[in-house]
UniProtKB/TrEMBL annotation:
Alphabetical list of Gene3D superfamilies matching this protein: YVTN repeat-like/Quinoprotein amine dehydrogenase
Top-level taxon of the source organism: Eukaryota
Organism: Meristemomyces frigidus
Protein name in UniProt: 6-phosphogluconolactonase
Listed GO MF terms: 6-phosphogluconolactonase activity
Family affiliation: Belongs to the cycloisomerase 2 family.
Keywords assigned: Signal
Coiled-coil region: none
Signal sequence residues: 1-19
Length: 362
């Protein structure tokens, strides 16, 4: 769905080695592998390979570093959607392993469950108001293992965007035992516990957020030397970031939620596409650092490499990937991109076209 999404980058202090392969998807039906080469401080981002795959509207890529596989959701909005998996073969050319029919409107996916955490995939379906799961591997005869369909009475406060439940993300919690799905239409974070053996999800009570918040993406950080799990949610409709502590009963039962703070990503009325924050390692609360350009319009997606040295931002409408350096000591993001590459055709503001997803393949 269209949005100008404030990006929260989580600042980490880690080593220096960088991996230099990225994957990107384009709503016109392409999935790319990109090479980021560097010589000293000079970087060059180039297309290594491109395939037409992942149905009519590729929207989201998950990279499985262990299985050297890629899972792509298709946001096709009517008829039948799909889920595809690719292997990253020699010279990083992607080949399709499997493609199965799925509900429409796939906008995000995550691997979960099984003995290795890679036994199943869960998918958020925005237009279908559903979350589905599939057992892996995906084949042409795969059918969903479970489909959760959500309904609500009437509209939410944002009449245009909250006509129905719209799950926009599925994300695995820090220890892999629960899946969370911000529902932009229904103003809640949906939660499931995972049965690792069967891959079945069991619904937990949702975390309800104020009407009109429109939660879109969630991520988690563990602070207090492991004692506190904190959830950060980017709220698309309210244009805020909320910080919430999670509590887990010792019997493995569903988490409860304690709101800590809700912030504007734009202090002092400034606006910019990327906001950075430091995380207090005791409370998990955020301190504003800086705002940055995204070097294109409609930043939809971003990914930080494992070393914490590079931030790749995917701008939807201008269909470009901008790579920005991160100072691992200060967390500061570089003023100008080290590389910037247009992929395929540019999109149109408010349309579901242009670049959809970028991730580091490492
Ligand atoms: C960047 O890489 C591409 C593809 O390998 C190559 O054609 C181009 O000349 C390189 N650009 C620079 C500035 O090295
Ligand atoms: C991209 O990098 C991979 C791995 O280093 C290499 O095999 C491939 O040839 C590169 N692609 C291009 C177009 O240079
Ligand atoms: C997982 O499902 C299996 C089969 O239904 C059941 O025997 C087992 O107790 C479940 N595990 C948990 C942790 O609920
Ligand atoms: C998993 O859930 C489905 C329905 O959601 C159910 O039909 C199936 O029996 C469950 N499988 C196990 C092993 O519990
Ligand atoms: C994950 O957290 C839940 C809730 O605290 C706990 O029951 C479970 O044992 C944990 N799992 C792992 C693998 O640590
Ligand atoms: C932000 O903008 C509003 C509306 O224009 C104004 O009332 C407010 O004083 C501004 N705040 C700051 C900190 O500049
Ligand atoms: C990171 O920032 C520190 C403090 O400003 C500076 O001393 C250091 O040179 C920077 N590192 C890089 C790689 O730019």
């Amino acid at each position: 769905m269209p949005s100008l999404l404030p990006l929260v980058t989580v600042l980490t202090l880690v080593g220096a080695a960088t991996c230099e392969q990225l994957l990107a998807s384009h709503f016109s039906g392409q999935v790319y592998t990109l090479n980021l080469t560097s010589a000293g401080s000079k970087y060059n981002l180039s297309v290594s390979s491109v395939i037409t795959a992942c149905g009519g509207l590729p929207s989201w890529l998950t990279y499985d570093a262990v299985g050297k596989a890629v899972y792509c959701s298709d946001e096709t909005m009517s008829g039948t959607g799909s889920i595809s998996s690719f292997s990253a073969g020699t010279n990083d050319v992607l080949t399709v392993i499997g493609k199965a029919n799925a509900p429409i409107g796939g906008v995000a996916n995550t691997l979960f469950g099984g003995s290795n955490g890679r036994g199943y995939v869960a998918i958020a379906h925005y237009q279908a108001s559903k979350v589905s799961t599939f057992k892996l591997p995906i084949t042409s005869s795969s059918v969903p293992q479970q489909v959760f369909t959500f309904t609500m009475n009437g509209h939410g406060p944002n009449y245009a965007r909250q006509d129905a439940p719209h799950p926009h993300h599925v994300v695995l919690g820090p220890n892999g035992s629960f899946i969370y799905s911000p529902d932009l239409g229904a103003d809640q974070i949906r939660v499931w516990s995972i049965n690792h053996t069967t891959g079945n999800l069991t619904s937990c009570p949702s975390y309800m957020v104020p009407g009109g918040t429109g939660p879109r993406h969630a991520t988690f950080v563990v602070v207090q030397n492991g004692a506190r799990i904190v959830m950060y949610v980017a709220n698309e409709l309210a244009n805020t970031i909320s910080v919430t502590a999670l509590k887990f009963p010792s019997n493995g039962a569903c988490p409860t939620f304690q709101p800590l703070e809700t912030l504007s990503p734009f202090p002092n009325n400034a606006t910019a596409p990327i906001a950075t924050w430091t995380i207090d390692q005791t409370s998990g609360m955020l301190d504003f650092v800086d705002l940055h350009d995204s070097w294109g319009t409609y930043p939809r997606t971003f990914s930080i490499n494992k070393a914490g040295t590079l931030l790749a931002v995917g701008d939807q409408t201008t269909a470009n990937v901008a790579v920005l350096a991160i100072n691992t000591t200060t967390g500061e993001v570089g003023a100008t991109p080290v590389a910037n590459l247009r992929l395929g055709t540019a999109g149109h503001p408010e349309n579901e076209d242009g670049l959809s997803s970028v991730v580091w393949a490492e």
